[in-house]
Amino acid sequence: MTQLAGADALTSLDPVFAQLAVGVGHNLWGLPHLTPREKVFLCLTADLCHPHLGVPLAMHVEMATANGVEPEAIRELYRHLAPYVGYPVLVPAFQRLAELGLPAAQDTGPVAPVPPSGALARAVRDLQDVDPGLAAFTEDQFAQRWARPYLSVRERALTCLVVDIFYQTLGASLHLHAELARADGATEETFRDLIRGVAEFGLARAWAAAAALLPVPEPGTEP
């Protein structure tokens, strides 16, 4: 994708800023270790974290459509992120999707919980030692979303990493989501590109996340 969605609208606001914004858009779309869907989901997640539900969200929904991301995948992303960015944020976000003309949600029936396993189950067990009530709530939230359709585990984990970067939850949460992403094919190069892509939404936060997640390269080597 060579044309930043909404670039003309930005130019009408401030042409110098628009030029800078197009530059960071090309940076994101030039990253080789993220799929086009993952780049779209990165931007949509960033909108929820701020939250930026006006022009930025409209631009990113347009970007999603241009890259073949189905409307139900956008809705599923929102459902997945509700406990990570906060349920109240999702109410105006879903309202905004309706205003932007996104097709209505498909009625898939009641959510069928799938008990968490692997790293998710281990995270719940670790929380038991801190607060059993919080562990029970976390287990319930995990069970309702990580095995649902429309998004892969890797896509879910990478968007949770975006939340970790924005909210600077750079300890257990960050490493849990990195482990889940690795188990579904993500590599160190994936994480480097994710952090480089998030940098346009907050350079200082990306810098801190890189220090927390990425290994320090040996002197004289190129990461």
Could you characterize what this model shows?
The protein has helices spanning 7-13, 15-29, 36-49, 55-66, 71-85, 87-99, 118-128, 132-145, 153-167, 172-183, 188-198, 203-213. By secondary structure, it is mostly helical. The longest helix has 15 residues, at 15-29. The radius of gyration is 18 Å and the shape is globular. The model has no long low-confidence stretch (mean pLDDT 92).
Supply the key terms:
single chain; 223 residues; mainly alpha; 12 helices
Helix/strand order, N-terminal first? HHHHHHHHHHHH
Largest sheet: none
Q: Which regions are unreliable across 5 or more consecutive residues at pLDDT < 50? A: none
Measured on Cα atoms, how large is the radius of gyration?
18 Å
Q: Helicity, in percent?
A: 55-70%
Mean pLDDT, to the nearest integer, reads 92
